[in-house]
Please model this.
Amino acid sequence: MSMLTSGILMLSVLVALLSSFIVGYAIRFMLSQRKKEFAAYELMGMEVKTVRNLFLVENSMIGGAAFLLGSLLGTGLSGLLNQVVQNIFEVTHHYQVLFSLRALGTTFFFFVLMYGFSMLRAAKVIRRQKVIELLYDNQKNEEVGYQPLYRSVLTGLLSLAAMVAGVILLEKALHIQTNEAMLYWSGACLLILAGVYELHRKVPVLLYQLAKRNPRRKYRGENLFFLGQIGRRIQSSGRTMAVVAILLTVSLATMFVGLTMGAGYKANMEAYYPYDAGVAIDAPLTKNSMDSVRSFVEERCEAEDSVTYYLYAVPNEAIEALALSDYNHLREILGLSPVSMSDNEFLIHCDTWNYMDGTRQRLEQQPEITLNGRTLTPAETPILTEPMEQYQMAGTKGYVLVLPDEVASRLSGEKIRLVMKLEDSGYPELKNELKQFLNSGKWQPDIQLGQGLPERVTMGVTVKAWGVANSLTGFTTLSFCGLYLSVIFIILSCSVLAFEQLSAIDRNQKNYAVIDRLGVSGHRQASLIRKELSTVFLIPLFFPIVLTVLLIVGTQFFFGDAILQEGLVLFYGLVTILLFCAIYLTYFGATMFLFRRVILRPEMR
Model:
């Protein structure tokens, strides 16, 4: 919890810095809408100081109301946030609203910095601009200047090459195990983000220039008006849309990684730690050797159940075997129902999805096995898939062969295992204590008659409480912070786009009034507004979506087999895109509503 608190606090500082630009943008927008009004006040004899103070007081009231409303909403949502965190750590919880004076004070501090700095800049504009500048500020001539077509094409190709180089560096970084990998990661991210920025600066200009070169399309219907509108947007807001594209790329990437990392690791935790405590020793020891280990654990925490069993070597097969009685005892510890089969049957347990198809194919090719002169056929349900940790405890390769007790007893038990179910799942420090006991010399194991120790003895200790307290905490913190940051970035990006469209609403109102007088119907005007805003919102979205799809495919290719739940990467990739689209379309719909309400006459809306 302390890690998570520190992470959220650091991200909140970053969010406050980014939000200050949005707040400044909003205040500049309000100032631009009222410049003529302030010029009229000054012409009527009001002092500049009074006009400035009027603006500051009004915006202070607006900011104060926003702060109070945000604080109330934040306090209410903190209960939901707390529930999410408690659920991640599997702690019993219920919704509860808690008021934190410290959190309120921190929020107010950031609010004063953000809002105060932006208002001081706006006051400086009022103080320094002359009346004539206030009156005609929004009527300045546009400075239109586009690069030659070949330069736009060349820049676009270089940007695309930079993005490809970034992806190649990412692929190389995945195979480097030293600190050098950080250099590759940093270089890859810089190349990709620089490519995204330049592509979103040049590709819209390139498409605009190509559209203007086609006379038939240019003069069809209202396309000339539409191209003029889009050209002005590209000229005035090109950099803004490119920056928004970078923010959206980061948002989608962090959201996908956060969702996949959290869900994937939690799925793996269920498979890696199904038992409260386990000891795995790849040596032919007697079962009595594990009695002292069991006693050592029971001295520290009460054991509700335990089982000592062998993993048997199967002659001429790259698979280990479990006796049916031991297998059912493991299922009982996990709360699963027992299975039954006849003395001439076998089954395979495989809880690793990427081995499932191969296992089915092997069963189809070899439906019978012969062991010690006895032929066995598959059971009615030949493959079972419940999580049983099959890389150490119930197998070592991701699967295990389950045999009748009589058949298994004739095989060589080359690996021994101890599994325990503990009261309250044990405690994290038990893992180190158990490892120290096994290596201290106090434990004296016995070797089976006629067997010898291998050259290297592999020993493993698993304690579920340790795994949850260490591994899950770190991954969950990263996952939650990634999701938190991605949602904030999406909201900031959409806010910038919305303000960018609304800031030019005066000019658009005049432009649409002209085509209204020329006889363009209200239906066509509404269609033009929808087409214009859709284009502006779509421009910074294209490459972030493409890169996210590539990220999803790459993650599935490189890490899909490591996640012990089939289809999890693709599922959360789809969830990422749908969740992003829901937030993005909400802002688009709100901007469209305000735009149409201001531009169109009431009967046209």
